[in-house]
Design brief:
Rossmann fold; six-stranded parallel β-sheet; single chain; globular; eight-stranded mixed β-sheet; 29% helix
Length: 346
């Protein structure tokens, strides 16, 4: 089988394909022939070795996880003797996180881990595009912020992988959602349920006073200090990006503040049993038409460096998907269908 590897930190070109031995599933594992995976911000950080604290996980001087990628979608090729939930031929999707290794044509995963059958209406590319954003945004909004109906939730970076999922989930929880993005992606964000949509090139959302119950900075571009006055008296600021400031503000405001708070959650490190339950919820929402995939583009596995280049721009809308099969003509580097088109055909 082919895998995408890198031996040193650097630009997208350090990632290349090579042959590797096929993995063998254990007694309670399944072997998945991967049809689609994704390249996300964590993969780009791991490849580049920046910010520097990322090397605490990826390796201080050289990469210790030579195969990146956590999310996958494909078809089960073989199962272990003790597997009861799945059978060969099942279409499945899920995540290996916090482990990596999904940028490969075959992966193994325990049957009780974060793996589920792909909803009938989705392709493998569409299914894998939902995983990272959903499993990141859900704990922030449901568990940390405890979003309830009638609240106002602002999502900064609302067109990205996590941001687009956050818009849909906040809407599902009954909140009024304000999306912040560039003008090109405003129609997409509006189609996901944000109203209004703020163009960050012409308006600074932090200039509002006491407007938002939750500010979810899904791209780590605005600080708690900058966003603080835009929060209601007991509002909460959330960010996905670790920094020295937030690592201090998080416990201090949690334990000592009776007003506005700041928080971060390390969603990728959570117990696999939690992720498995959340993946089941994702399937329910997809089948109910309440959650749709957002794909920036689909790139052939042979061109994985191009996927990394796209992520490095910081301007993708939704997920950058890798199609593993070289024969798949849909795997050319072209933008995929928008979420608004997906909603129109569901």
């Amino acid at each position: 089988m082919r895998i995408a590897v890198y031996e040193r930190y650097g630009p997208p070109e350090v990632v290349h394909l090579q042959e590797a031995a096929e993995p063998v599933p254990g007694a309670t594992e399944v072997l998945v022939r991967v049809e689609a995976s994704t390249v996300g911000a964590s993969d780009a950080a791991g490849r580049n070795g920046t910010p520097r604290f990322a090397r605490l996980f990826f390796g201080l001087t050289t990469p210790k996880h030579p195969v990146l990628g956590s999310d996958f979608a494909g078809v089960i090729e073989r199962v272990g003797d003790g597997v009861t939930r799945f059978a060969p031929g099942d279409r499945v999707f899920g995540t290996l996180a916090p482990a990596m290794g999904a940028h490969a044509e075959l992966v193994t995963i325990a049957e009780d881990a974060a793996i589920a059958r792909i909803p009938e209406r989705l392709t493998a590319a569409e299914a894998v595009a939902t995983v990272d954003g959903f499993l990141t945004a859900l704990p922030f909004l449901r568990d940390v912020a405890a979003v309830t109906p009638g609240q106002v939730v602002l999502v900064n970076g609302a067109s990205g992988t996590v941001g687009s999922a956050a818009v849909q989930l906040a809407r599902h929880f009954g909140a009024t959602v304000v999306g912040v993005c560039g003008p090109a992606n405003a129609p997409l964000v509006a189609s996901l349920g944000a109203d209004p949509v703020i163009d960050y090139t012409g308006e600074d959302f932090t200039e509002a006073r006491g407007a938002y119950d939750v500010v979810f900075d899904a791209v780590g571009k605005r600080s708690f200090r900058a966003a603080r006055r835009s929060l209601t008296a007991h509002g909460i600021y959330l960010t996905t990006v670790p920094s020295a400031a937030i690592l201090v503000q998080w416990p201090v405001t949690r334990w000592f503040s009776r007003g506005r708070r700041a928080a971060i959650a390390f969603t990728g490190l959570r117990d696999i049993r939690l992720k498995a339950a959340e993946l089941a919820l994702l399937v329910e929402l997809i089948e109910a038409g309440e959650f749709v995939p957002v794909i920036d583009r689909t790139v052939a596995f042979d061109d994985i460096a191009e996927a990394h280049r796209r992520v490095d721009t910081g301007h993708k809308a939704g997920s950058v998907v890798i199609a593993m099969s070289p024969a798949d003509e849909r795997a050319k580097v072209t933008p995929a269908a928008s979420a608004s088109e997906t909603r129109a055909t569901r």
